[in-house]
Amino acid sequence: MILSHKKISDKDLESASIIWDFLTQKDNLKKADLIFVLCSHDIRIAKFASDLYKNGYANRILFSGGLNFFTKNIFPDSEADSFANFAIKEGIPSKDIIIENKSTNTGENIQFSKSLLNATNVETNSIIAIQKPSMTLRVRLAFDKQWSDIQFIVAAPNYSLLDSPHSHINLFMIINEIVGDLQRIITYPKLGFQSEIFIPESVVYAFHYLVSREYNLHLIR
């Protein structure tokens, strides 16, 4: 685990909660052709995807993700391979698992996975896109821009900001992560990576406050 170098104040936590709530936007679950997992540092996402498969929400799971700033020191293999191995241990047949292990960001998750599905002739008209709760808005906006011709819903395990730390990442790093995620929602529409969305003033204020408090490890420089 990467340890915090500072005490998280009550105002830090209040500001982070405002951002977390804004970034978390999930749909009601319904059956689809494919469970599409945008992998991360949180193996709980693989468990959630495995449970959806077992409950009949889809007959295939695609795990997408290489390694990034957070995961290069966590997993011995790519995020996708690590998640797939977890799913197989959960009883998911390997024949129903597709692995895309080169992507390093949300845009590449979508682009590389679309190409892989086309190359392997896997017909997919509807998707359950799964990520961490605080990444669900980014996933939705990226799909709106980059894969708008497919039916999709966005889903995530039901846990809060305070429940988001795990054995490899603590609350200090989680706050750094969501500050960086919000920055990308602000800047990425101008680059054509995702759709634009109105950001409330309270969320913008919380972002600038946390940046001033040096929660800046995940910011784009």
From TrEMBL:
One matching Pfam family: DUF218
Entry's Gene Ontology cellular component terms: plasma membrane
Matches recorded under CDD domains: YdcF-like
Residue ranges of domain Rhodanese in the record: 21-79
Alphabetical list of PANTHER family matching this protein: DUF218 DOMAIN-CONTAINING PROTEIN (PTHR30336:SF20), INNER MEMBRANE PROTEIN, PROBABLE PERMEASE (PTHR30336)
Name of the molecule in the record: YdcF family protein
Organism: Leptospira soteropolitanensis
